[in-house]
Amino acid sequence: MTLEVRLFPCLNDNYGFLVRDGATGTVAAVDTPDADAILAELERSGWGRLDLILNTHWHPDHTQGNAALKAATGCEIVGPEEVRKAAPLDRVVKGGDTVLLGETPLEIIDAPGHTLGHIVYRSVGDSLAFVGDVLFVLGCGRLFEGTPDQMWASLQTLAGWPDETVIWCAHEYTASNARFTLSLDDRPEMQARADEIFAARERGQPTVPTTIGSEKAFNPFLRAKNAAEFAARRAAKDSF
Predict the structure, then answer these.
(1) What pLDDT, in 10s, does the model give residues 130-177?
(2) Gap between the Cα atoms of 76 and 98, Å rounded
(3) CA torsion sign, 145 to 32 to 8 to 124?
(4) This model's pTM is above 0.90
């Protein structure tokens, strides 16, 4: 299995993703922050088709391009039931289901916390996952609907994946997350990691993707010892 991923900026701080199955040429967009930006990237890619939209959760900055992309390409829209609160949806999926992107199976994992119905898409064979707003580089999503215990459990699920798993997260929040992390973690290696991040952003380079191994080493939310410590850190970040 070989998936090719194209990352590109959308809106103020979102990322869009186009994903292509090498065996069949089947193409998916993971979330739809900006239909025009996605169609422009599709044109640049030369891939010539959009077969699927894979929504992770219902928030408009992840679903507002659904209708326009379906009208332009005829693609099928796949996602959790909660997407229907904000945008059209053709096929409902939930944890334990599998979506085929061409010949590549994508496992669906429930990951509530940011929203109650949030899901992530994981290709075990390609050792990568699209995690929406659950896990960020040095961060995690705000708890708009779920509880700290729910988000902690979701993060622990991701932390159980192999360290080499590549994580494609949906926002460029990393510089802010690094500043918060430095307020908690004074290890020299953390300062070195933050310096890499600040330099990348000065050059206009994305900090996504990351890996599970890197996040286990540096992310203060994955490094929390328990759900209570996670909750305290999430509350501190909200007011940082």
Answers:
(1) 999 999 999 999 999 999 999 999 999 999 999 999 999 999 999 999
(2) 15
(3) positive
(4) yes
